[in-house]
Design goal:
globular, binds glutathione
Length: 208
């Protein structure tokens, strides 16, 4: 059985969504980052980076970095409904989409949630948060243009981990109106959130 260190409102939810889509069993060990449980010696022994999620495999190996965990689960369990397999025509487009989200959108979201870490003076925190949101929306704007051209999903009619991951981040933006300039992103998020196995997990996110 997998052991997942995470829980809402963290991106551990992305891993839970992958588990749900794949009907995989796991034991959730919630880590409350507000109470700094991710910085305890016990948790740092699991993931020395002090971040959640971390996933312990049935064989006892510890995995970290959310997109890596998602890909690992999709590949190990042949979850072709989440990821085109190596050699499939859409594999390259899928990897490009997933890595764009991981490398470009995620860092902006990190600054959005932790703006105080990126300023020299406390009084600049609100401006940093606003700047981070603009950066995230800029990235979502790029995705929006792709989805307008090729959507409703990143791979056309085919849902994938790229949509799931993007939807988690877009749904995490506190101001619903912020997504108004990105109608194709909004449409994709709605489609992802309506998936029966994912709906309860997105509801858990909106409760925070
Ligand atoms: N690159 C890592 C980052 C993980 C990450 O930053 N997780 C957040 C929760 S969503 C966290 O642990 N935050 C605590 C902190 O940064 O102190 C991943 O994608 O898994």
């Amino acid at each position: 059985m997998y052991i997942l260190f995470g829980g809402p409102p963290t991106r551990g939810l992305i891993t839970e969504m992958v588990m749900a889509e794949g009907a995989l069993d796991y034991e959730l060990r919630p880590i409350d980052i507000k109470r700094k449980e991710h910085l305890t010696p016990e948790y740092l022994a699991v993931n020395p980076a002090g971040w959640v999620p971390a996933l312990v495999t049935p064989e006892g190996e510890t995995l970290y970095e959310t997109p890596a965990i998602s890909l690992y689960l999709a590949e190990r369990h042949d979850l072709t409904q989440l990821a085109p397999q190596v050699g499939e025509p859409q594999r390259g487009a899928f990897l490009s989409a997933l890595f764009y989200i991981a490398d470009e959108l995620e860092p902006a979201m990190k600054r959005y949630f932790y703006p105080h870490r990126y300023v020299m003076r406390d009084e600049d925190t609100a401006a940093m948060k606003a700047h981070a949101l603009r950066s995230a929306l800029d990235r979502l704007g790029v995705i929006d243009r792709r989805l307008t051209r090729e959507g409703p999903y990143h791979l056309g009619d085919r849902f994938s981990l790229a949509d799931l991951t993007m939807a988690y981040w877009a749904a995490s933006i506190e101001d619903d109106a912020a997504l108004e300039p990105c109608p194709a992103v909004k449409r994709c998020v709605e489609l992802v959130m309506a998936r029966p196995k994912l709906r309860p997990l997105f509801e858990a996110l909106s409760g925070y």
